[in-house]
Design a protein that fits this description.
alpha/beta, 14 helices, 8-stranded mixed β-sheet, 15 strands, 5-stranded parallel β-sheet, Rossmann fold
């Protein structure tokens, strides 16, 4: 694979030389998460200037189970010394109780960079290297969603505000290009094949109000299902948690269900519909839109999933008040206060994405694991592509 008409080895050499030229004899702080983007950015900088890279994992409190320890071990096996800084108390104190998606992302960004500013001062680092890639700043500048690691593209002067300059060697690349560089650099497959994980972590998958119990439930079911989720033929698959949705109906929803009946050939009264309390992020035209998410239930859920592409092609024309549709794949139970959505997408560039087919057997295995947590009452499979949905919910 070539990158911008250059062989990978040529492109990597140019990146390393460019970093060395910019940094000169300065120290560089590296914010690493174990994801492919931040790992490649930090590793390229380490190749350029060696131990003057000061790499840190920031424990925000929104990481997955055992993620900090696993990530540290993987990075150190690459030869990159890494320290862990626990900032979870600061994040929790500012974010618990917050509901608005944009407010949550912006608060996270402020605490994250205030933490990095402290560490940069402690390490006498004049630069911060981070793994910002093209979709991050394109979506942020386009007001689809605020990526926490996009600063310069919004006009934020990090030198004045935080005391460091930014180094973003991957800012013009897309995920498939970064993955090609990672393969060339022999980055461990555990990192290359790792499921993409947003900087704010489980914060943006804890949809709506941030509650500690809600976060713990999400962390638990994510750990229970991680291996099964990897079996889905997808570029990315994960779980998100919501307040238990309410049953609902309207003329618009009735018209939608009539169209579904025509598509799948189901008659009768077996459908139930649920409206989620939280607004979720979507895309209309080139702009972000916060709107509602509808859950649909019928005992023939396999038939609904089989016709999902026809359903989502039809739904924006009929269901104008909603931006996402999800199929309830568990039997509703009265106990529990949260619903979980399974989100899986196939994509090469993360700018657009389709929803893959999943066997009902695999879905049921995932559901069984999720429902082991007594706090969960319903499990959905989100069938909405990007657009009109975004990949994450917030």
């Amino acid at each position: 694979m070539k990158i911008y008409d250059k062989e990978i080895h040529e492109y990597v050499d140019e990146l390393v030389n460019s970093i060395r030229k910019v940094v000169e004899d300065s120290n560089v702080l590296a914010a690493v998460s174990g994801g492919i983007d931040s790992t490649v950015a930090a590793y390229l900088t380490w190749l350029a200037i060696g131990d003057r890279v000061k790499a840190y994992i920031i424990n925000t409190g929104f990481m997955r189970e055992d993620e900090v320890e696993t990530t540290k071990a993987l990075l150190e096996n690459m030869g990159l010394p890494v320290k862990v800084y626990d900032a979870s108390d600061a994040f929790y104190s500012s974010l618990l109780g917050k509901k608005d998606a944009e407010e949550k992302r912006k608060i996270f960004r402020e605490i994250f960079y205030e933490t990095l500013a402290k560490l940069a001062k402690d390490e006498n680092a004049q630069y911060l290297v981070q793994g910002t890639i093209a979709p991050d700043w394109i979506e942020t500048v386009g007001k689809i969603k605020t990526q926490h690691n996009v600063l310069a593209q919004l006009g934020i002067k990090t030198e004045e505000k935080y005391g460091f300059s930014l180094l973003e060697p991957l800012a013009n690349l897309y995920k498939d290009q970064v993955r090609a560089i990672a393969n060339y650099l022999k980055v461990p497959k555990e990192i290359i094949e790792r499921q993409p994980f947003p900087g704010p972590g489980l914060l943006v998958r804890c949809v709506g109000e941030v509650e500690l119990d809600k976060l713990k439930a999400l962390r638990n079911v994510t750990a229970l299902c991680q291996d099964l989720l990897m079996k889905i033929d997808a570029s990315q698959s994960f779980l998100a948690i919501f307040r238990k949705p309410r049953m609902t109906t309207s003329k618009e929803i009735s018209d939608f269900i009539k169209e579904i009946k025509n598509i799948v050939g189901i008659g009768g009264r077996g459908f139930k519909t649920f409206e989620f309390y939280e607004n979720v992020t979507g895309v209309k035209g080139d702009s972000r839109e916060y709107s509602k998410m509808l859950g649909i239930y019928h005992k023939e859920s396999e038939l609904l999933l089989k016709h999902k592409d026809e359903i989502v092609k039809m739904f924006p024309k009929v269901l104008k008040s909603y931006i996402r549709v999800a199929v309830l794949v568990s039997e509703p139970r009265p106990a529990g206060k949260y619903a979980v959505s399974i989100r899986a997408v196939k994509t090469s560039d993360f700018m657009t994405a389709s929803v893959p087919e999943v066997s009902i057997d695999l879905l049921q295995q995932i559901v069984e694991q999720i429902m082991k947590d007594i706090r969960i009452t319903q499990v959905y499979y989100d069938i909405t592509p990007k657009p009109p949905a975004t990949i994450e919910y917030e």
